Amino acid sequence: MFGDYSIGDLGSIFVMQGFAGLILFSVYVLMALGLAIIFGQMGVINMAHGEFMILGAYVTWLTSNAFQEYLPSLFPGYFFLAMVLAFLASGALGMLVEWGLIRHLYKRPLDTLLATWGLSLILQQAYRSIFGAREVGVELPQWMLGSLKVTDTIEVPINGVFVMCLTVLITVVVAYVLYLSRWGRQVRAVVQNRIMAGAVGINTEKVDRYTFGLGCGIAGVAGSAFTMIGSTGPTSGQLYIVDTFLVVVFGGAASLLGTIASAFSISQTQSTLEFFMSGSMAKVLTLLAVVGILMLRPQGLFALKVRK
Amino acid sequence: MIINSRFFNRSELIGFIALAALLFVILPLSLDVFRLNLVAKYLTYAFVAIGLVLCWGYGGILSLGQGVFFGLGGYCMAMFLKLEASSVENTKIQSTPGIPDFMDWNQITALPFFWQPFHSLTLTILLIILVPGLFALIIGTAMFKRRVGGTYFAIITQAVAAILTILIVGQQGYTGGINGMTDLRTLKGWDIRPDHAKVILYFFEVFLLFGCILLAQFIRLTKLGRILVAMREQEDRVRFSGYSVANFKIFAFCMAAVFAAIGGAMFALNVGFMSPSFVGIVPSIEMVIYTAVGGRMSIFGAVWGAMLVNFAKTSLSESFPQLWLFGLGALFIAVVLAFPNGLSGLWADYVQPRIDRLLASRKSKMSNGADSSVAAGAPAE
Amino acid sequence: MLIGHQPKEFLLAVEALTVSFDGFKAVNNLSFYVEENEIRVIIGPNGAGKTTVLDLICGKTKATSGSIQFRGKELTKLKENEIVQTGVGRKFQTPSVFEDLTVFENLEISFPRGRTVFGSLTFQRDAAVKARVEEVAEMIFLKDRLHTYADQLSHGQKQWLEIGMLLIQDPDLLMLDEPVAGMSVSERAKTAELLNRIIKDRSVLVIEHDMKFVEDIAHKVTVLHQGQILSEGTMEKVKNDPKVIEVYLGH
Amino acid sequence: MALLPRVAFGAGPATSAVNTTGLAVTDTEVTVGILHSATGTMAISETGSIQAEKLAIEQINAMGGVLGRKIKVIQEDGASDWPTFAEKAKKLLVNDKVASIMGCWTSASRKAVLPVMEQYNGMLYYPTFYEGLEQSKNVIYTGQEATQQILAGIDWITKEKNAKSFYFIGSDYIWPRTSNKIARKHIENFLKLKVVGEEYFPLGSTQFNSVINKIKLTKPDVIFTDVVGGSNVAFYKQLKAAGIDLSKQALLTISVTEDEIDGIGGENIAGAYACMKYFQSLKNDNNEKFVAAFKKMWGDKTVIGDVTQAAYLGPWLWKATVEKAGSFDVDKVAAASPGIEFKGAPEGYVRIHENHHLWSKTRVGRAKLDGQFELVFETADLVQPDPFPKGYQ
Q1: Cα separation of A209 and A221, whole Å?
Q2: Is D383 left (phi over 0), alpha (psi -120 to 50) or beta?
Q3: pLDDT band at A281; cut points 50, 70, 90
Q4: Three-class SS state of B94
Q5: Which of C172, D22, D31, D126 is the most exposed place for a label (fewest CB within 10 A)?
Q6: Do A135 and D263 touch (CB under 8 A)?
Q7: Nearest alpha carbon to residue D235 among D225, D221, D220
Q8: Which residues of chain A lie closer than 8 angstroms to D240, CB-CB?
């Protein structure tokens, strides 16, 4: 299939294709980070994760509208505020959900799956009732549109670069929070031994609530970022949920590094395959490969061998 | 039928009779054919729910991929019916007459090899059982021999459901794609669409359902049923009592798959339709919900759960189309938070004691029931 | 079991057994031998690797290297249920019984028949089963509670039930992890009596902290420390070993 | 509708004469069903159709109804689930005895409903442009079938852009695949040009960077798309982000109407061409009245796409047919359908063909920043519907 093209053409296409893979990688990492925290650290299966993302997207949409209406001069910078608001909104909703629902179910992880599925139905219908069934278009400031010309033939999308930078930033922050901060130590202490953590004076309820809130908040930021590349509708969140869970499980649930490695391998596989076959088949083959590997290596890519 | 106090304890016997009366007598007499056909559709999910009681309630294996098996069973049945509906004279406007219409639309000019067995009803019935059974065996062996369980298993089965959906939709020349297989007409020349056929199919399905109920009940009462309970609680203890835990899980999972497949086949027959929208993640989770609402430990509860949730879905969406998702979502949450044992748990906790108290005054007349059922070792509902 | 009948053959031979978790060697190059009808007690401070040794023998944990021979069979290559079928029984530290089943059903599940899927589908509760279950129930002081659900039992009764479940398997090697931990004084005495009765005709490997109890039953004592053998021999010998004294009293 | 005169119903011909098959027709009322998804993923698209049908029915009632009878609506939710559509269609026909059904949107829902319509002899007015390969006594297709929609548009863009090569991108299901098949045959066999790529993505897919790279590599003269739903939004946003300027790169879509642009954002798709039979911006009296009435009823911000307009035609065509047949009986309505015209159609003028599809014009519009289309081409005559096109199968 490449016979007709010059070496230069092919070279730049491969560069751009690699970049496409990196964007997909960033998208996966953003989706999976929040879930990795909630599922990996707390063992809660949050099927409403996609709906938390979409909440972030709607918040971004509202912010964009508000800026256009009242502060058109500041519109170019609205996106940063929108992401903060998205984090706060999704995080707050997450904490509310933890308080009302999740905390009653820590001993029954499979039941969290059912309950959060119910929650996702309610949230979807709520979005539909509030924002309408149609997808909303989030208007982006001019500087985020278009592409950067690296050479004559290589162009990289600006929003892709933005998503990648955002991903790096959030990953670093999450890694810092989880592995270096005092609060992160508390989270890990609670994960490893809830009773002991309580006994040494950690407020486990508070840790749970903030952990869940953090995971949901990151989902909100991810949703905010996705308005640049995807659609925002009441049911858009459902599209992400299986991919997200696979990324987390494939990585080995408890490991941040694993999540990143797994997002990387899945996204590169998929974008490479997409270049050689139709999108549908690429997706099927990627998922099959992931499931196949998980069958051979159920603990995921990165898992500690621990004494149970 | 073996209905005695050894096979059913008293409350189960009441449940069995009540359900039989409802499905065989009350509903057929009180509903028009349209509603009866709807009940038939609801009951196809009851097959899945019974399977889930064995696999999830008893075995502790939560599968979020039952839609896969429901779909495989349904597609097997639908392929047979579709072939019959695609006779040369029915399809003479096609460029290749005698093959299903969707193949013709996709420029396929000959029936693919894997469609050939579905010319025969006998083979079709065998395949309805075997294809999902073997598929479950493969997944189950791969997963359980490696001790994958719990949430991981749930997520992987979910991924399998996603894969199969994309595959069916993508390979539309062979599967009918997203439209599914529609316009199924006759079974061995017998028209399945008119009202009297719907009634016959309904009764056939109910008979089959009771067959599955009895089979599930039989499994539950054997030592295997008790091992499933034991396994759910103390997997290691079962292992160190000399059992291969993986084999028992595989068995439960395969049984659940076969039950789901029977339900799928019944769906294709009763609804005259099969599409990938019953294979994916959403229907698979809904099937789990039916079981949860009915009570994950109760076979009868599962049947009730499948009927009631679907009935609620139909009637709520008729009267409040905008709001039924709220209702459904709230129902899931309520069942998980407040009634983890579902309707059958409510029954056992609130209704049953009252009935018992009522009956206690006449206990002298009924002296043989309760004790022997304990001796028979029926696990707690 | 031809090999088993050869003279001077050990029932259990553990040789150069090592397991490491993330580089930490919980059991390190461990070797010991248990003879037919021997009662061996393993003692040692917390974290010495005692429970891990039992886990390794019964297959719960896979060894990194080394071998475990039971009647000439290599156990490290077998699955847990196969190990049980060769005649090794294991009791866990915390009582692990099936709380949603009755005492009768708990014991019945351990009855060594119908252990395959189809075997258990066709399993019949015949006179032999009932007799054996009742016999064992009597031994473990639960004869009048056969139809009680196990979640109704006291802690001590659950421990007995689990021992009963092992008895019904009739293993050649019985491994007990702290059988009297958490028991009341009277329960403890009854347990000692029970153990003394059941250890006839089989080898027993016990982990126990209660020194009086150990002295009562042990033929031979192995002291583990940091995954290795610190001392081995009769209770008397071990008690006077300066290394043991240092480990136990030095901390 | 306070401004309109109050209408008294019941002056029409006797019920026994106009209803011989037991439909839900009284002296003053006739019942009609509306069957679309109000919930689920398709609710996004089908809302406009529901609104248009309700508008048409209200207008018809204000004008005195059908044969002197007021139209009563029973609305059912198909919930984006095809068997639910079949089930609800059956309910409408069997329990409610509706005289006709305005409904369905996706091909899948129509395929599910079709056997029910044929078995229980109902009348369905189906609004969506679709893949063709179907014709039924019991269905009137008020949208365009594939050849009607596509061929004129491809001819036009080929001439306009002097195009030599095409690249197809679609969602993975029957309508895009069939449409692309017809387009490919037309391009390769009739125009003797080249199709350099054909790609399908699962419904709901949101990652198009790889295919966009392939487009950059193959440099087609025209990108031809039939991506549907939320994928559209992702596709056009990523296309724009990748630096493909639609004012320079010709793109012809058959799946984006004003409804979709609402979600995509005008700035992301401005410059693209869409091939439809109707655009909200059409300049004619019928359309101006229609748009005004629609906005009055459903709010200023609503937009009207091709399918919404086609849905609006349904009740009017049915009314005209019933009045010509002088009966609500489905057989008579079906028989009287060919030749029925509707001069008040917002798209101008339509007429029902023998094959129960509509004669209609094909138009090409260019998307503008404000989300509307600017009409750049329309066929001079009505295009004949040809659901089983020879040479394209």
Answers
A1: 18
A2: beta
A3: confident
A4: coil
A5: D22
A6: yes
A7: D225
A8: 145-146
